[in-house]
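Quick one - first record:
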Amino acid sequence: MSERPPLATRVAQTARTRLCPHCKATILESANVCPGCRHHLKFDPAAAQRQSETRTALRIEGSIQGPSPAEPCEYCVVIAIRDDHGREVGRHVVGVGAMRPGERRSFTLSVDVVPPPGPKPLKRE
């Protein structure tokens, strides 16, 4: 009886993206839960294990208050991402709005780090 050679494996590619079918946000292809709308996307025990290993690398919370007793004001929330050389690799307007005098808005910025997916076996033909 001849032994079958082990299935070839391919190295998983990190940072591959897709659109969430619910909210249309660009998310990681490996995500089993959308970080934006929090809908479950697929059942994958390996992805669930990776998700449980997620750590929050950065979390900033803050709030602003409309000027009092001045006129209403507007705000614009912008996130800029830079590489280790200071070059901007992404810039996104996250939200805009207005506040009446005395109103308050709170903001939370969170950056989660997820381990990359492991290698997947190639399908035999």
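second record:
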Amino acid sequence: MGYDFSEMEWEIDEANSRISIKKIPEIKILSNCTDINYYNMENGIFNKFKPEDLNLIKDQCTSQIEQVAWQSELPHAALEQANVLLAEIGKIHKWEITPLKLLDAQG
């Protein structure tokens, strides 16, 4: 979970060593690699699974994982990490970045 920095819009003022963030994209789940293994999938009299059934199970699992992620501390952690990254980029290159805190911009 985090920001896709390629979706941000920046204005660079090289003369004053300043970068102004003009557009901040919404925080989003950047990757959701669910690796679901199915065990004991032998088809029997009472246990008939079709490929569509397995796809439905995987989709439901993925959806539930995403819901839990949004309700967890991950969105706040992603904000903090992005803020630290921007501060470090500015510090290393001796540039001022405004707004420095994405949290301020998101409200």
